[in-house]
Amino acid sequence: MTDNPSLAAKTKDIINRYGFAFKKNFGQNFLVDEHVLDKIISAADISSEDIVLEIGPGIGTLTAALAKRAKKVISVEIDKTLIPVLNEVLSGFDNIEIINGDILKTDIAKISEENGGKRLKLVANLPYYITTPIIMGILEQRLPVESMTVMIQREVAMRMQAEPSSKDYGALSLAVKYRCTPYLAANVPQNCFMPRPNVDSAVITLTPHAKPPVEVKDEELMFALIKAAFSQRRKTLLNCIFNSGQWDMGKDDIAELIRGCGFDERVRGEDLSLEDFAKLSDAMSA
Ligand code: SAM
User: Fold this and answer.
1) For residue 118, what is the DSSP state?
2) Helix 34-44 vs helix 5-18: crossing angle, to nearest 10
3) What is the CATH number of the domain that holds 119?
4) Which of 159, 181, 208 is the C-terminal boundary of a domain?
5) Predicted pLDDT of residue 1
6) 123 alpha carbon – ligand 1 mean position (Å)
7) Would you say the pTM of this structure is higher than 0.85?
8) How far apart are CA 58 and CA 30, in angstroms?
9) What's the confidence (pLDDT) of residue 286?
10) From the CA of 202, how far away is ligand 1's center (Å)?
11) Which residues does a 6 A CB cutoff place in the pocket of ligand 1?
């Protein structure tokens, strides 16, 4: 059962009419809950000036809700069997552009350029297999995206917004903190989708920073240190850095470096903040 049988019934009807078969490999779990749809729309904060980029419109449920508020919605859908469905379901709108393609191969900067150079608001019920590549790709390449409001696996959302010394804290939390501000907008149970996924979901809004919250001399070095620090979770930072074999340093030198930054040499990566990693990285590159 879902909170809104009408959206579920409408989805079922479209699927039957088109003889559509869900494709697991494309992460096709369609949203059939009106309340969650409203939550995504309000978290995305769409105005009539906004150009929205939607990933994976499916049968167009979220697309239509977005198009009612935005100046324009550009939706990229990989599954060509959904294109005729989308053309029919969305025929009443003149501000939607459907692109049949893979978002991972789509030139997002060009879409912004073609739409007056405006930064895009990305909104998506994401296929979970592309969550990290798409989000981190946009953040790392500093693509012209003003905000991302995305449905993702709850477990990944928790890792994205975790703070030091918590069980979910790790390399992803630090990468996210360096590049954007995360805000958890909603928790979404499995029964809000058709078919039901076997994990819970969450809607998270990520707003990229104009400038990182910490200054670091060598960004690449800091992220290499972070990766090493979380490669063996139960080990100390000292052992993790040493065991990674990436730096030509003995254990004593590493211990001195750690102490020199004001940390206990038995500290674990999970206890260090972004500022701490930046400090460690700058000390290493000095
Ligand atoms: N937006 C719809 C909804 O909320 O009901 C569908 C969401 S469903 C979780 C994910 C959608 O992304 C599917 O329509 C799927 O075909 C599409 N998709 C999967 N991989 C894709 C990719 N690499 N590029 C673009 N679309 C993709």
Assistant:
1) P
2) 100
3) 3.40.50.150
4) 208
5) 45
6) 12
7) yes
8) 7
9) 84
10) 16
11) 26-31, 55-58, 61-62, 76-79, 82, 102-104, 125, 127, 130
Place 6 in a pLDDT band, splitting at 50, 70 and 90.
Answer: confident
Reported as a pLDDT band with limits 50, 70 and 90, residue 140 is very high
- The domain tally of the chain equals 2
The Cα-based distances of 188 to 9, 30, 133, 167, 199 in angstroms read 19, 13, 22, 21, 10
Q: Determine the average pLDDT of the residues in 19-31.
A: 97
User: Is the separation of the CB atoms in 122 and 138 below 8 Å?
Assistant: yes
pLDDT over 90 at 4, yes or no: no
* pLDDT band at residue 32 using 50, 70 and 90 as cut-offs: very high
Within 10 Å of residue 141's Cβ, how many Cβ atoms? 11
Strand order across the 180-188 sheet: 96-100, 72-77, 51-55, 120-125, 145-153, 201-208, 180-188
**Is there a contact between 53 and 111 (Cβ–Cβ < 8 Å)?**
yes
Do 164 and 35 lie in one domain? The reply is: yes
Supply 254's token pair.
């590493």
Residue 23 Cα: closest atom of ligand 1: 16
**Domain at 250, CATH number:** 1.10.8.100
Helices 237-244/251-260 angle, 10° precision:
140
Nearest CA to ligand 1 atom 23: 102
Q: How far apart are CA 70 and CA 48, in angstroms?
A: 5
pLDDT exceeds 70 at position 5: no
Nearest Cα to Cα of residue 76 among 118, 111, 50: 111
Query: What pLDDT is stored for residue 3 in this prediction?
Result: 47
Report the percent of the chain where pLDDT is more than 70. Answer: 98
Does the structure show a pLDDT above 60 at 22?
yes
